[in-house]
Amino acid sequence: MTGLYDVFERRLRVEGTLVTETGLHIGGADDGLDPTAVDNAVVRLPDGRPYIPGSSLKGVLRSFLERLQNSPGRWLLSPGVRPEDCLHNDWELEKRLKQENKSERHVAEAIWERLCPVCRLFGCQAFAGRVLVADLLPIGERTLLERRHGVAIDRETRTAAGGALYDLEVVAPGSRFALSILVENPSDAQVRDLMIALLALAGGEIALGAKTASGLGRVRLTDARVVDYAAHDVLAAAWGGERTAYTLEEYARLLGVEAEAPRARQEALQAALARLGPEVTWQQAQEALRQVFGGEGGA
Ligand SMILES: [Zn+2]
């Protein structure tokens, strides 16, 4: 176990550019995407330019890894407590630990040992987590806003809500935002887990914001650079030079992460199908697909 205490052991910094490939809508604080609202505006900086809250990106990275963790592809992630046994589902246990143990340190260790890999990385109520995602600020002048119009669909009845039209503000395709992620004192296994999510982000597999099922929110991480402060000397030696930063792909290879996330998931799917036996019904195949590639919407 590393890094439970306030001691610097390692710091990983990932920087890059997040490019929107379709319209992107991230609304304000209580973004209910009210179908009757005239003006569904995107979140903006005080100067009026749109930005991407770090919490939004962190949320989709986390839920990507959660889906993976709950699928046959969980072998891709570091071993640990299974999600169904994770402490964040058991508040009584945390209370008991606090009563049984005297020092905060023992409680912290005991909690850590009972968390799933995703909670260890991204945190939960009992644990602060390791990943800090800064708000993504727009780069250059090409960040434009557009309006989209459509028929609002009632979520309950799945029908057009009385023919109501929605009017949605989106960040235009081709807009660029500066990404900066800091990970404090991660273990190698945790860095691998994060790399899997970032490779998926680079592969355009993770959607962001509202209405992703309708095609909004396609984003792609480009020009990503990884700086691993504690491991710098080791990595520089491995690459035979004075290197301080690595591309996402180089760094993933160093960590032994499959650099092509889609291929890794394809393998996970094959493994899931193999487990079903020689005769697979269409329904079973669909179920395996759903488990590997996530729920509805195919995000
Ligand atoms: Zn958990």
Layout: helices, strands, pairs:
Layout: E1 11-20, H1 54-69, H2 91-100, H3 104-113, H4 117-122, E2 131-133, E3 137-138, E4 145-153, E5 160-171, E6 176-184, H5 188-202, E7 219-228, H6 232-238, E8 246-247, H7 248-255, H8 261-276, H9 282-293
Antiparallel strand pairs: 1-6, 1-7, 2-6, 3-6, 4-5, 7-8
Helix pairs in contact: 1-5, 5-7, 8-9
Bound molecules: zinc ion (ZN).
Which descriptors would you attach to this protein?
alpha+beta; Alpha-Beta Plaits; 6-stranded antiparallel sheet; two-stranded antiparallel ribbon; 19% strand
Q: What is the beta-strand fraction? A: 15-25%
CATH architecture of the domain at 11-63 and 132-255: 2-Layer Sandwich
Task: Give a list of the ligands.
Answer: zinc ion
Q: Kindly provide the radius of gyration, computed on alpha-carbon positions and rounded to a whole number of angstroms.
A: 21 Å
Order of helices and strands: EHHHHEEEEEHEHEHHH
Most strands sheet: 6 strands, antiparallel
Shape call: globular
How many beta-strand segments? 8
Uncertain spans, ≥5 residues at pLDDT below 50?
1-5, 295-299
Number of helices: 9
CATH topology annotation of the domain at 11-63 and 132-255:
Alpha-Beta Plaits
